[in-house]
Amino acid sequence: MISYLRHEFSFNASHSSFGAGAGSHHHTFLVTCIFECYGNSEEERRAVEMDAESWIGAFIKGFDGQFLDDLVYFGGAYPSVELMGDMFFETIRAELKKKNAILCELDISDSPTTYYQVSDRIMLTNLNDNISVKNYDMLMRLMERI
What we know:
Blueprint: E1 2-16, E2 24-38, H1 42-61, H2 81-98, E3 101-111, E4 114-119, H3 129-145
Antiparallel strand pairs: 1-2, 2-3, 3-4
């Protein structure tokens, strides 16, 4: 049995739009993760969920109160919501794989009206058109084999 779970995490941080601290501004970021937990029993799946949720929460909390431009994590690149989303997705996905869980989708928002969505599969409407087209093409090729 597979369980799909959705958990939301938030953190407050600032970054600069123009580099070197110029145009520094603050955001409350909302990160939503949808992941699958595997296990032979409900108890095992629940333990995987709790471990995954705890690890993601600690990872996200590490960005709380930070000036993102200064973090080595971004390698000097402008920490846009898109870059953050892509990097968070890859980091969290790699860690969850070790914990018997799979990250299906990550959404990150820096305002109430916009968000960036990252997924390696067709799930919901995806703002990343290149990924959506790639996934759709892959699905159509698989369907042709049936």
